[in-house]
């Protein structure tokens, strides 16, 4: 596969590139799965991202009243607030 032996720094660079590509692909895949869940079961997607809070209950109510409003609200909430610890602000 390689025409010559790689130096240590070149191997480290290749390893770093492979790790970055793998991380990017896993993040893209998780985002795709989250959006797929939004279109299938909107309250479940909100629950998986935020737990049981006001956004979850609002999503449940809107989904019961009409599936499309539940999907739109869940999409809005999930795109407006990033998942995980990145949504916490350090003051």
Radius of gyration: 20 Å
Figure out the total of helices.
4
Spell out the helices and strands N to C.
Answer: HHHH
Q: In this structure, how is the largest beta sheet organized?
A: none
Amino- and carboxy-terminal Cα gap: 50 Å
What's the pLDDT, averaged over the residues?
79
Number of strands: 0
Tell me the count of domains.
1
Pfam families: Pmp3
Keywords: Membrane, Transmembrane, Transmembrane helix
Subcellular location: Membrane
Organism: Neorhodopirellula pilleata
Note down, in words, how this protein is organized:
The structure is a single chain. The protein is mainly alpha-helical and 91 residues long. The chain has one domain (8-82). Helices cover 75% and strands 0% of the residues. It has four helices and no strands. The protein has helices at residues 8-40, 42-50, 54-65, 67-80.
Q: How does the SSE layout of this entry go?
A:
Blueprint: H1 8-40, H2 42-50, H3 54-65, H4 67-80
Helix pairs in contact: 1-2, 2-3, 2-4, 3-4
Quick gist of this model?
The protein is an all-alpha fold. 75% of the residues lie in helices and 0% in strands. The radius of gyration is 20 Å and the shape is rod-shaped.
């Amino acid at each position: 596969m390689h025409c010559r032996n790689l130096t240590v720094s070149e191997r480290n660079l290749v390893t770093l590139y492979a790790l970055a590509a793998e991380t990017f692909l896993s993040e893209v895949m998780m985002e795709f799965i989250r959006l797929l869940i939004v279109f299938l079961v909107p309250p479940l997607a909100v629950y998986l991202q935020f737990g049981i809070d006001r956004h979850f209950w609002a999503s449940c109510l809107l989904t019961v009243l009409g599936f499309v409003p539940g999907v739109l609200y869940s999409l809005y909430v999930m795109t407006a607030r990033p998942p995980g610890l990145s949504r916490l602000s350090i003051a």
